[in-house]
TrEMBL record:
Residues 2-129 form the DUF6089 domain. The keyword Signal applies. It comes from Chitinophaga lutea. Gene3D superfamilies: 2.40.160.20. This is DUF6089 domain-containing protein. The keyword Manganese does not apply. It holds the Pfam family DUF6089. Residues 1-19 form the signal peptide. Keywords: Signal.
C-alpha cells in the first residue's frame, strides 16, 4: 500500500506542487451591455471603461484560482437604434457596475516552458447596479424607485417586487498570457457576464396604466416610463401606450461584459524554473 501511495504521489507531484505561485495585478479595458435597449447583440457605440484588481494562485501548471473586484459602466439609448419602433420608444439608461468574482482558469500550455499560454476561465460573481437616465431638463433620475413597469405596485402583483440591485452573474471567457519576465505577466482577456435579471436597463415587460402609475408614483414616473413624446422633429410625438402594451421583452436576461489588458506580478517560492524544482522536492520531503 505504501508503494502504491508513493507511486501516486510521484506521478501527481508535478501537477500538485510545480507552481504554487501567487499573482497580484490589474485589469483595465472596456465594458459593454446587451439587453432590451441594444438593437444588436452588443452596441459598441456605448462601450465604456472598466478597471479592476485581481489575485490569482497557481494550483498546478494548468489550473489557476482567481478572485477579483472590478468597476465598469454600461449604457444604451433607443435614439441611436436603426429601428423606427425603437426610436419611437425613446428610452435610455446608464448604470455603474461593481463586481466581486471568484473563479478558475484553465491554462492550455505550461507558461513557464512556453513563455505564453491561452486560457479559458469561469466562475461566479456578485454585482451591484443602479440604472438611471436624464430627464428632458438634464437631471439625473434614478429609475428603480419609479416602478416604471409596475414592480412593487399592488395593482400588478404579477410584476413582483421591485428588482434587487445586488445580483449574481456567471463570468466566463478566454484570454492570453505572456510571461514578460520571470515576475511580470502581460495579457488580454475577454469576459462575458450573463445575469439572472432583466432589469439592468430598467426595461423588461410592458407598460402599465398611466393613471395608476401617476397615482402611485407621480408624474415623474409617467414621464420616465414612456418617452415617446420627447422624440422631437424626426417623427411625430406619441401618446402613452395602453396598459399591457409591449415595452421590453422578458425572453432573455441582460448581459454585461468586462474585457481588457491584464498586468500581473508573480511572487512566491514557485516563481521561475528553479522554483518549480524546489517545490517539487518539497513534496517528497517527509
Amino acid at each position: 500500500m505504501k508503494k502504491i501511495i508513493g507511486f501516486v504521489l510521484f506521478i501527481s507531484a508535478p501537477f500538485i506542487c510545480s507552481a504554487q505561485d501567487w499573482h497580484v495585478g490589474l485589469i483595465a479595458g472596456i465594458s459593454n451591455y446587451s439587453g432590451d435597449l441594444s438593437e444588436k447583440r452588443v452596441d459598441f457605440r456605448y462601450t465604456r471603461p472598466m478597471v479592476g484588481i485581481m489575485v490569482k494562485k497557481d494550483m498546478n501548471r494548468y489550473l489557476t484560482l482567481r478572485a477579483g473586484f472590478s468597476f465598469g459602466m454600461i449604457a444604451a439609448a433607443d435614439s441611436t437604434n436603426k429601428s423606427i419602433a425603437l426610436q419611437a420608444r425613446n428610452l435610455s439608461f446608464r448604470s455603474n457596475i461593481w463586481e466581486g468574482q471568484l473563479g478558475a482558469e484553465w491554462n492550455i500550455l505550461d507558461i513557464d516552458e512556453k513563455g505564453f499560454t491561452p486560457y479559458i476561465f469561469g466562475g461566479v460573481a456578485l454585482f451591484s447596479f443602479y440604472p438611471w437616465a436624464k430627464d428632458v431638463d438634464g437631471n439625473k433620475i434614478a429609475l428603480r424607485r419609479l416602478s416604471t413597469e409596475g414592480q412593487g405596485l399592488p395593482q400588478y402583483p404579477e410584476r413582483g417586487n421591485q428588482y434587487a440591485l445586488h445580483q449574481v452573474s456567471i463570468p466566463f471567457g478566454a484570454g492570453f498570457k505572456y510571461l514578460f519576465t520571470d515576475r511580470w505577466t502581460l495579457g488580454v482577456e475577454i469576459g462575458l457576464r450573463p445575469t439572472f435579471t432583466d432589469y439592468l436597463d430598467d426595461v423588461s415587460t410592458g407598460y402599465i396604466d398611466q393613471n395608476t402609475l401617476l397615482a402611485e408614483r407621480g408624474q415623474l414616473a409617467v414621464d420616465m416610463a414612456y418617452r415617446g413624446d420627447e422624440v422631437g422633429h424626426k417623427m411625430p410625438a406619441g401618446t402613452y401606450p395602453l396598459d399591457g402594451a409591449q415595452r421590453g421583452s422578458a425572453k432573455h436576461k441582460d448581459w454585461y461584459s468586462f474585457s481588457g489588458i491584464t498586468v500581473m506580478y508573480r511572487f512566491g517560492s514557485g516563481s521561475g524554473g528553479g522554483g518549480r524544482s524546489t517545490n517539487f522536492s518539497r513534496c517528497f520531503k517527509m
